[in-house]
Specification:
The protein is α/β, with parallel strands linked by helices. Helices cover 43% and strands 15% of the residues. It is built from eleven helices and 14 strands. The structure holds serine.
């Protein structure tokens, strides 16, 4: 496939990376997309893969030179729950990893960067609902703190060195193709697997803890769409608010029960519920819609039906 892009996905084994790299390969050709992560992928893969940490500048430079990389999607990160247990490592990976990539762009080795921020940049002083782009950001997790600092770094490199870096504030991302790790919104993926396998689930958030969420297909769409938009449309160079769904564990439980009647959920909130308590319940994404035409495709019932259909297929295949 003819493509002027050579893409590097850092964190290609992760929850979003696994799905993003496949979509990018299908769009730009398997010869034009390279995945990298700390470990070899568990499953058989068709794409080119390089073992590398985003903190290893020399190895990264070798990879960028070897494949003449133009675009980097930097997904490697410590998320909220894991970050609280590893403060220094979370800061190091989330900030110094980003800085490495921004500096490669400054040295004109790469042209364009995607780096996700998160709803975790908001905190208890932010309004709970319809949170606007410029509402208060006073995060209470090291994850949120590092994402907020990262946003400022991206904006600084854009203004000072004209670096084409683009970012969205991901809400909790829910998909069936890959598993999340170390996040507070992970329950909304785990719940489906347990519903299908055991018809019961023990939830680590309280039943009415509403959080902003998004189906994986919409998140991948948004990610590729912001990267494919003409540069002049990307007016915000910190990170765009992005919104799709908001629901509580109880609401997703009821939606799953429409498909699995005997499904039971026990609520046993742990420390992750306190992290979630500091986050907004719903987000206003007017700027993303206006500037680069973002629009989600999935609502709650559509998402739940799609996940259950696909996971049923996946688990019944495993049984035969
Ligand atoms: N999914 C993230 C987390 O739970 C929030 O953006 O840490």
């Amino acid at each position: 496939m003819l493509s002027h892009k050579k893409i590097l996905v850092i964190g290609s084994n992760g929850q979003i990376g696994t799905v993003l790299i496949k979509t990018l390969c299908e769009k730009y050709g398997y010869e034009n997309v390279i995945g990298s992560d700390l470990k070899h992928p568990d499953k058989q893969i068709k794409f080119i893969f390089e073992l590398c940490s985003v903190l290893d500048k020399d190895k990264l430079e070798q990879i960028i030179d070897k494949y003449k990389i133009t675009d980097v999607y930097l997904l490697a990160a410590y998320l909220s729950a894991k970050g609280e247990k590893n403060i220094n490592q979370a800061w190091d990976l989330n900030i110094n990893g980003l800085l490495n990539i921004l500096n490669f762009a400054k040295e004109e080795k790469i042209k364009k960067i995607f780096w996700p921020s998160s709803i975790a940049v908001f905190g208890p002083t932010t309004p709970k609902n319809d949170v606007k782009q410029y509402d208060k950001t006073e995060p209470v997790t090291i994850y949120g703190v590092s994402k907020l600092a990262g946003e400022a770094l991206c904006n600084y490199y854009y203004n000072k060195f004209d670096i084409d870096v683009r970012s969205i504030r991901y809400p909790g991302i829910i998909g069936w193709k890959s598993m999340p790790g170390g996040g507070t919104t992970d329950y909304a993926v785990d719940i489906f697997h347990e519903a299908i396998k055991k018809s019961k689930y023990s939830c680590f958030l309280s039943e009415n803890r509403i959080l902003p969420m998004m189906y994986m297909d919409d998140a991948i769409n948004a990610t590729i769409s912001i990267m494919d938009s003409p540069s002049e449309k990307i007016k915000i160079r910190t990170s765009y608010n992005l919104s799709s769904l908001s629901f509580s564990p109880k609401q997703i439980e009821s939606e799953i029960k429409k498909h699995i009647e005997n499904f039971e959920v026990k609520y046993e909130p742990d420390e992750r519920d306190n992290l979630a308590a500091g986050w907004p319940q719903s987000i206003n994404d007017d700027y993303a819609r206006k500037d680069w035409g973002w629009k989600p495709n999935y609502n709650l019932s559509h998402m739940v039906s799609d996940i259950i259909l696909n996971l049923n297929k996946k688990y019944s295949k495993k049984k035969v």
